[in-house]
Design a protein that fits this description.
About 70% of the residues lie in helices and about 0% in strands. It has helices at about 10-40, 45-65, 70-95. By secondary structure, it is an all-alpha fold.
Length: about 100
């Protein structure tokens, strides 16, 4: 991975923060696109099947948080964020299937 280089007038800390924020935005867009593709895999896309995939993803996030030893607050934050991304993807694909 590339190393962040400060621009004119930027501290290394500011440059690092800007780089991190930019990467998070890119990862969010890529994950939402990947979720949309994974959850809507055919012409006969099924909202229940998509919900099953979403549940599996949430279970995996919880498991991984446990494996890396996150504290309760961090685990809750990660799970809430994953749920937010999945809910947005499901709602955009299946607006009538609530």
């Amino acid at each position: 991975m590339s190393q962040t280089k400060p621009r004119d007038g930027q501290t290394a800390e500011k440059a690092g923060k800007a780089d991190l924020e930019a990467r998070v935005v890119v990862l969010e867009i890529m994950s939402m696109t990947a979720l949309a593709l994974a959850l809507d895999t055919s012409e006969n896309a099924d909202a229940e099947h998509a919900r099953g995939i979403a549940g599996l993803i949430l279970d995996t996030v919880r498991q991984r948080c446990h494996e890396v030893g996150m504290d309760d607050s961090s685990r809750l934050s990660a799970c809430s964020y994953a749920d937010e991304l999945l809910s947005t993807a499901l709602l955009s694909l299946y607006p009538d299937a609530r």
